[in-house]
Amino acid sequence: MTDQLRSLALDALTRARDRTAALTSCVDDRDLTAQHSPLMSPLVWDLAHIGNQEEQWLLRQVGKGEALRPEIDSLYDAFEHPRAARPSLPLLAPAEARVYAADVRGRVLDILERTAFEGGPLVDAGFAFGMIAQHEQQHDETMLITHQLRKGPPALSAPEPPAHDTGPLPREVLVPGGAFTMGTSTEPWALDNERPAHRRIVPPFHIDTTPVTCGEYQAFIEDGGYHERRWWAAEGWDQIRQHDIGAPLFWRREGGMWLRRRFGVIEEVPPDEPVLHVSWYEADAYARWAGRRLPTEAEWEKAARHDPHTGRARRYPWGDADPTEAHASLGQRHLRPAPAGSYPQGESPLGVRQLIGDVWEWTSSDFLPYPGFVAFPYREYSEVFFGSEHKVLRGGSFAVDPVACRGTFRNWDLPVRRQIFSGFRTARDAQQPAGPDGGSL
């Protein structure tokens, strides 16, 4: 078991570092040190921050070694310096940041070889190594967002998602009411906000079989959705009026056609692809316009994990096996979501698809702790974000690595956020009529 854990940890750490290298080697030093948006850090900050977090947790905490670069801790403290201010800091230059991260990693691999994976919650089942792999992959997704915001010619490429010709799907499915197990107490690398497992009772509801598509969202735009106050939460209405928002981020209308910019490429918006780069307010307004609503976080997880035939909660919609290329689009394997209805092997027992991968899905829920929550290993990972300011997103996106995506994984962000790889699906109460968008895809 120890050798197996060591191999899993090594694979997760290596995969993350390979991705970090790819995201930071495809542009020059000027792009690495530039701030491409005040919403994001310079890429070089993320690179050194990844190394610094790895040093603090794996070298100092797990390895009990001396600090390698303690003088830079404050520079790469995400809570001490807001993103907009980070370009003005005396950051490590790109070459120095690469050498530092590589030095840390070499020492970490020595520690990994001698760690017994028992003796405390930080090392049991290799948790700290899994936590750091997830942390790096989360910053890789952040850096991919920065690449999307970056102006200029394309720096990244990837193959197109595979085609899945599976025929029409029902618009929605009924999820039976009753209790189910939410969260986890057994997933070894689950983070604190996913814990503990607990029983939730959810009334019956209907949920979309796929995320809302660009074509469906265009219908909302063409019907004047951005100009009808009645569809919007008060703060959302103020936001779109203040910033003159009339479509998802990166979209523009030209010659009667909707175009978008995607990683430096200008292309026609694909109607059958899940809509991306919408805020919670936009998702909520669309759902109201469609006579529906966003699912709660508990509803989303029940649709994704609950097996009505056995009553048990699965790790993933398709079962307990780790995701493969047949189940979901993950790991930046592609640079766009697959068409709605793709990945039939990844559907849930009730026939809901693309719950994992492709697009993060906004839910109606605030980011709150589960009953019995205990902060671990530090309050700043989850606890300081709990409250009504942040909304929960579930399911991951094409930019998420499998190590940081599972049926219990919880993401959160401010409801105004649009640069993230966010989409949504809708739901309705079981006794509520289907609304004007009912029918088959």
Summarize the helices and strands and which ones pair or pack.
Blueprint: H1 2-25, H2 29-33, H3 43-62, H4 94-114, H5 127-149, E1 172-175, E2 178-182, E3 198-202, E4 205-208, H6 214-222, H7 234-242, E5 251-254, E6 257-262, E7 265-268, H8 280-289, H9 297-305, E8 360-367, E9 387-394, E10 410-413, E11 422-423, E12 427-429
Parallel strand pairs: 8-11
Antiparallel strand pairs: 1-4, 2-3, 4-12, 5-6, 6-7, 8-9, 9-10
Structure commentary:
The protein folds into 2 domains: 2-149, dinb family like domain (Four Helix Bundle (Hemerythrin (Met), subunit A), Up-down Bundle); 169-441, paralog of FGE (formylglycine-generating enzyme) (Alpha-Beta Complex). The radius of gyration is 22 Å and the shape is globular. The termini are far apart. Residues 437-441 have low confidence and may be disordered. The protein has helices at residues 2-25, 29-33, 43-62, 94-114, 127-149, 214-222, 234-242, 280-289, 297-305, and strands at residues 172-175, 178-182, 198-202, 205-208, 251-254, 257-262, 265-268, 360-367, 387-394, 410-413, 422-423, 427-429. Helix 1 packs parallel to helix 5 (127-149) and helix 3 (43-62) packs parallel to helix 4. The chain has 9 helices and 12 strands. A hairpin with a 2-residue loop joins strand 6 (257-262) and strand 7 (265-268). The protein is 29% helix and 13% strand. It is of the alpha+beta class. The chain has a 4-stranded mixed beta sheet with strand order 10-9-8-11. It has a 3-stranded antiparallel beta sheet with strand order 1-4-12, with helices on one face.
